[in-house]
């Protein structure tokens, strides 16, 4: 006997919570293992990235190769020891919201550019960055922006020296509470700016 329209509607409404749960789980898995959207919280990566921009971060990029100089990477701030102790369902929903860039992460997340690789000696002098004594060419830095003196510092094994492009307003490896970051803490590589509309670009 054909199903009545009323019964069909009831079944459809009953399925909505299940479909919503499935969507949440899929979104959470994608956010955890594949890619995630991140909100740019500061001006440290100007002129390429501005406050309020959204970027897509690939969590698979470094499954295929090691981090490279010039990559823009995302990682949790070593200075932030915040722990999210909210119930699991709440954390899942928050994780999905963070994954699509609608809310800021509970823990402070930094986005910087890879400058020095393991074993290299990094130094700031004469307004420029030097790697193993050779000046680093940095076309991503705005005209008039120089780098204050620092180092020389040798990057430890399995670590990265990271810096913001806006050297006058970036809390990065030059500061003791950040320092060279372990490669194991890198969440992923920023591969594309997706917001604001009309300003999309690959990174």
State the distance separating the first and last CA atoms.
Answer: 58 Å
Order of helices and strands: HEEEHEEEEEEEEE
Per CATH, the superfamily is Umud Fragment, subunit A
Tally of distinct domains: 1
Biggest sheet layout: 8 strands, antiparallel
Average predicted local confidence, pLDDT: 80
- What's the level 1 CATH class? Mainly Beta
TL;DR?
With 203 residues, the chain is α+β, with helices and mostly antiparallel strands. 20% of the residues lie in helices and 28% in strands. The protein contains two helices and twelve strands.
Q: What does this 3D model show about the protein?
A:
The protein is built from two helices and twelve strands; from the N terminus they run αβββαβββββββββ. The chain has 203 residues and is an alpha+beta fold. The chain is globular, with a radius of gyration of 21 Å. The model has no long low-confidence stretch (mean pLDDT 80). Strands 1, 2, 3, 4, 9, 10, 11 and 12 form an eight-stranded antiparallel beta sheet that branches. A four-stranded antiparallel beta sheet has the order 7-6-5-8, with no helix packed on it. Strand 11 and strand 12 form a beta hairpin. It has a single domain, classed as Umud Fragment, subunit A (Ribbon), CATH 2.10.109.10. The longest helix has 29 residues.
């Amino acid at each position: 006997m054909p199903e009545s329209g009323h019964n069909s509607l009831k079944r459809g409404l009953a399925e909505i919570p299940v479909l919503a749960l499935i969507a949440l789980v899929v979104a959470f898995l994608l956010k955890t293992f594949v890619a995630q959207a991140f909100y740019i919280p500061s001006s440290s990566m100007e002129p390429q990235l501005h406050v309020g921009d959204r970027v897509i971060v690939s969590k698979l990029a470094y499954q295929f190769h090691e981090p490279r100089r010039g990559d823009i990477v995302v990682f949790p701030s070593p200075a932030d020891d915040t722990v999210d102790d909210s119930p699991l369902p709440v954390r899942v929903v928050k994780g999905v919201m963070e994954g699509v860039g609608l809310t800021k992460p509970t823990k402070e997340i930094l986005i910087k550019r890879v400058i020095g690789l393991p074993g290299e000696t990094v130094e700031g002098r004469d307004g420029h960055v030097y790697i193993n004594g050779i000046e680093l060419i940095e076309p991503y830095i705005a005209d008039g922006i120089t780098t204050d003196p620092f180092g020389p510092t040798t990057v430890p094994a399995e670590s990265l020296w990271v810096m913001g492009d806006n050297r006058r307003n970036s809390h990065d490896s030059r500061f003791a509470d950040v320092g060279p970051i372990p490669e194991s803490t890198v969440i992923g590589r920023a591969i594309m700016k997706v917001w604001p509309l009309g300003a999309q670009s690959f990174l």
